[in-house]
Write a structure and sequence with these properties.
Number of domains: 2
CATH architecture of the largest domain: Alpha-Beta Complex
Oligomer: single chain
Strand content: 5-15%
Number of helices: 16
Order of helices and strands: HEHHEHHHHEHEEEEEEHHHHHHHH
Radius of gyration: 25 Å
CATH topology of the largest domain: Cathepsin B, Chain A
CATH class of the largest domain: Alpha Beta
Number of strands: 9
Structural class: alpha+beta
Shape: elongated
Helix content: 40-55%
Distance between the termini: 35 Å
């Protein structure tokens, strides 16, 4: 009955002046009003409440939008971007459903984080990270289904503790004790952390961050009509303020003047769980701003060794990097090559993080290579012998047996390694430069065709 009354009011307003989106019955609209309100779990801070009040988000007014009336401005980002389709490749993760719990902050944060892992670290569009929203929310916030959470708290927890995979703490949409997480969750967190996060209120910066680094976490006011969204570009039509909501922003389109967003209400709402919203609508950009994060990257030498627990090697490499790599052109090329290493070898790092025996064998095999790096600038640098490479190849074979899906990639690694036998670290760097090694680039921005 409530849905029927609300829907009739919405259709009446819609017929007076059609909007750019289509209202209709959705799985969310059919839920009781109390359940829908409970799903809006973005808990504003005092400073955000002041911005909300100044923007009068509690007194919504339907705006008249005229597309394409602005002057052309030269920008450092492409005119349109959508991480669901970059040269035909989808860098996002599947739509999830938070159910009747105010856990949207956890879902929005991990939606952006998982996509950024695929983009910045895996560099592999078919990778499928699936992290535990339950752990982030119930361990980071507590019994907060009815109260909600805020972005900075979630980001700080992700930075300090990280999050284990979904199967470590499966999600249910009711308050659950943190003790329900798996006993070895700290060991299983691995590289699922962030090094830092940032916030911006500048829309140009938001677009630049999205196009260059990946999706952002954002917030918005939700009005009654938003529950009935089935597709198109949302803009307020009718209804009162119901609450505040966290989402992930995966793209934008300057021609259509809209943000492209990922929701956490399942695929039975919106555009199969996704939605587009006009610039400035519901305070999505001007009031809440957007949050960026920098995932931990095991492909970086320091982070990799620190992740695997090799504190001594970490200290050695940190000194080596500070004294040599960052101050030389060849060193900077080496760092860039390591940071842009293609994604399949990610599985190797995760295996090492979870398998102590394999990690010990790997450390033994790495020792000669670390010594070679340490002596790179000595009068007589350590030469990598055939025996050194033989030990390393045995470890690679052990990893192949554990993860046969990357047999091809690791076999290529073994073949590449053989040409460095009998060479020291300085000679290897020279060889790399002579071969004009260039790591694979990130996806090239392009303008998407209008839908």
């Amino acid at each position: 009955m409530v849905e029927s009354t609300e829907f009739k009011k919405l259709i009446t307003e819609y017929r007076k002046r059609p909007a750019r989106w289509r209202p209709g019955s959705t799985q969310i609209a059919r839920k009781p009003l109390a359940v829908r309100k409970r799903m809006l779990g973005l808990k504003p801070t005092r400073s955000l409440l002041r911005r909300i009040k100044a923007a009068k988000l509690d007194q919504p007014v339907r705006r008249v939008r005229r597309l394409g009336t602005g002057l052309a401005v030269s920008t450092s980002y492409p005119n349109a971007w959508d991480w669901r389709n970059v040269d035909g490749k989808d860098w996002t993760t599947p739509i999830r459903n938070q159910g009747g719990c105010g856990s949207c902050v956890a879902f929005g944060t991990l939606a952006a984080f998982e996509a950024r892992q695929k983009i910045q670290v895996f560099r592999y569009p078919t990778a499928s990270p699936n992290l535990s929203e339950a752990h982030l929310f119930f361990c980071g916030c507590g019994n907060c289904c009815g109260t909600g959470w805020f972005f900075t708290d979630a980001l700080e927890y992700l930075k300090k503790y990280g999050v284990p995979p979904e199967d470590c703490f499966p999600y249910v949409d009711s308050d659950t004790p943190c003790s329900d997480t798996c006993d070895d969750w700290e060991d299983r967190v691995g590289y699922n952390k962030i090094k830092s996060w940032d916030h911006t209120m500048d829309t140009d910066e938001m677009k630049e961050w999205i196009a260059s680094d990946g999706p952002l976490v954002g917030g918005m006011a939700v009005y009654t009509d938003f529950f009935y969204y089935t597709g198109g570009i949302y803009e307020y039509v009718s209804g009162s303020l119901e609450g505040y909501h966290a989402i992930a922003v995966v793209g934008y389109d300057d021609d259509q003047e809209c943000w492209i967003c990922k929701n956490s209400w399942g695929t039975g709402w919106g555009e199969n769980g996704w939605f587009r919203i006009g610039y400035g609508e519901s305070g999505i950009d001007s009031v809440y701003g957007m949050y960026s994060m920098d995932p931990m990257d095991p492909c970086e030498g320091e982070e990799s060794l620190k992740l695997l627990g090799y504190q001594e090697v970490f200290s050695t490499l940190r000194e080596f990097r500070g004294r040599y790599l960052l101050r030389t052109e060849s060193g900077r090329e080496y760092i860039n090559a390591v940071r842009r290493n293609p994604g399949p070898l990610w599985r190797v790092y995760s295996l090492l993080a979870f398998d102590k025996d394999l990690r010990k064998k790997t450390m033994t095999a790495l020792a000669p290579f670390i010594q070679s790096v340490q002596t790179m600038h000595d009068p007589k640098p350590k030469v990598l012998s055939k025996a050194d490479f033989s030990r390393a190849e045995k470890v690679i074979d052990a990893i192949i047996n554990r993860e046969p899906r990357i047999r091809k990639e690791l076999t290529q690694v073994k073949q590449e390694m053989r040409k460095y036998q009998g060479k020291d670290a300085k000679q290897i760097v020279r060889m790399l430069r002579r071969e004009s090694f260039r790591p694979p680039p990130r996806p090239v921005p392009r303008r998407l065709d209008d839908e």
